[in-house]
Write a structure and sequence with these properties.
The protein is mainly alpha-helical and 443 residues long. It folds into two domains: 198 residues, no CATH class; 226 residues, Leucine-rich Repeat Variant, CATH 1.25.10. It contains 26 helices and no strands. Helix 4 packs across helix 6. It starts with 9 loop residues before the first helix and ends with a helix.
Length: 443
């Protein structure tokens, strides 16, 4: 580390630990675990990642905090004691922590993880937990053993659940020697042979055709599934899910979008308006109409949010004026994050100060803060660099989500305004994708 920061107070450390900020790891590497040991242990035992489906696993990051320290025995004992109860994906990191400890020679961790994974019912409806962790620990030997067990289930019941083959092969799919060794084992092992056949079939299906061809097939599938007449009828009857309208809007022609807008301008009920607005969630409106500004102030929260989201793709000073008016309103609350989208293409001098002053007055849950910080990193495509910096740095410091933190850093790099302190902190972030950004340097 070249940037030596002051030690964090426990409350500040806990916040950055929960966010996965590099500053938490920097503190431990510089000052040790004294005063924060309990916080780090709890972070190991219960996954604090905001969105475990989108954010990367934190186990390597957490492991660095206690690996090789006098505190290791306490952490190891607690993790291995908790492991047998680790039946929820929210605490999948326990299994991976055990794998990392086993890789480094902790025989008890390796044995506990192997016993845990291999003692499970491989024919269960949801599949055994911890297979990827076991592959981390034992490599090809684990893939062979797990593949053999899944293959036996297939031999007994072709409809049985099978762990996605490419999940087990993650990290080995481009290793010809690894695949060759598995093929050699499978010559006299029908169960493993079945599993390898499933793997190759899955890979072939997934990568057949070019990326452009796959996108075109998806577009054709959406166009066929959601013709405009069906979309308009469903909107009038309050049918279909939001995702269907969004998908239709992404691939609709200009004439179709103009038709939807005409129906929206004529719609009279909140439910009808809401569904037609969803069409424009990821697609620009054909034009700005006074009725759309009215919908952006509708008394129905869902309609208001959908209208503001639809208008976020439009450049017009009237949208920024509307957003400023509501930011100044005492009724502005944590449910109004979509309002910030009106600034996306319309941020003027001083708007960033107005936005942040208002947000600083709110008390936000992690969910609410995530909604706001997601919006902040999209604001100001043509704004002054200083305004983009203030919004992106605010989002970087407060977002509970490492994916949004990465987006904030990317915005700062795009305008050559990433500070040395943030760049260095990114090198210690729980999200490895930020390490690459840190290596590209500050400006």
């Amino acid at each position: 580390m070249t940037f030596k920061a002051d030690p964090l107070e426990p409350a500040a450390f806990d916040t950055m630990l929960r966010q996965g900020r590099g500053r938490a790891l920097m503190h431990v590497l510089e000052y040790g675990l004294d005063g924060v040991e309990e916080l780090v242990l709890q972070a190991c035992l219960a996954n604090q990642t905001y969105d475990s489906q989108c954010e990367p696993d934190r186990s390597p990051w957490l492991y660095r905090m206690f690996k090789g320290t006098p505190h290791y025995p306490r952490f190891s004992d607690a993790i291995l004691t908790a492991l047998p109860q680790a039946s929820d994906d929210d605490i999948a990191q326990l299994r991976k922590l055990a794998a990392l400890m086993g890789i480094d020679g902790d025989a008890a961790a390796a044995s506990t993880l192997r016993d845990y994974v291999l003692a499970q019912d491989f024919a269960g409806a949801s599949g055994p937990f911890g297979c990827q962790a076991l592959v981390m620990l034992d490599g090809i030997a684990a893939i062979a053993e797990l593949g053999r067990r899944f293959g036996r289930c297939q031999l007994a019941d072709p409809q049985a659940f099978v762990e996605q083959p490419d999940d087990l092969m993650d990290g080995f799919e481009n290793d010809p020697a690894a695949l060759a060794s598995l093929d050699q084992l499978a010559v006299h092992d029908p169960a493993l042979a079945i599993y390898l056949a499933l793997y190759r079939r899955e890979v072939d299906d997934r990568w057949r055709g070019t990326e452009l061809e796959r996108r075109q097939k998806h577009r054709d599938r959406v166009r066929k599934q959601y013709p405009i007449d069906a979309v308009l009828a469903a909107a009038a009857a309050q049918g279909m899910y939001r995702s269907a309208y969004r998908s239709f809007g992404m691939y609709a022609s200009d004439d179709e979008l103009a038709t939807v807008l005409q129906h929206l301008l004529a719609a009279t009920t909140p439910e009808h308006c809401l569904r037609l607005l969803w069409v424009f969630a990821n697609t620009a409106l054909p034009r700005l109409e006074p009725r759309l500004l009215e919908l952006a102030e509708h008394t129905d929260l869902q309609v208001r949010q959908a209208a503001q989201e639809a208008l976020s793709h439009t450049r017009d000073p009237a949208l920024a004026r509307l957003a400023r008016k509501h930011l100044a309103d005492t009724a502005f609350s944590v449910s109004d994050s979509a309002l910030l989208g009106l600034f996306n293409k319309n941020l003027a001098h001083g708007d960033d100060e107005l936005i942040l002053a208002r947000l600083d007055k709110l008390t936000c849950s992690d969910f609410d803060m995530h909604q706001f910080t997601c919006r902040l990193v999209d604001i100001g495509e043509e704004a002054e660099p200083a305004a983009v910096v203030s919004l992106a740095e605010w989002a970087y410091q407060r977002t509970p989500c490492s994916v949004c933190r990465r987006h904030a850093v990317e915005r700062l790099q795009a305008i050559a305004m990433l500070s040395p302190a943030i760049a260095e902190e990114c090198g210690f972030d729980a999200n490895p994708s930020l390490h690459t950004l840190a290596l590209s340097g500050a400006h």
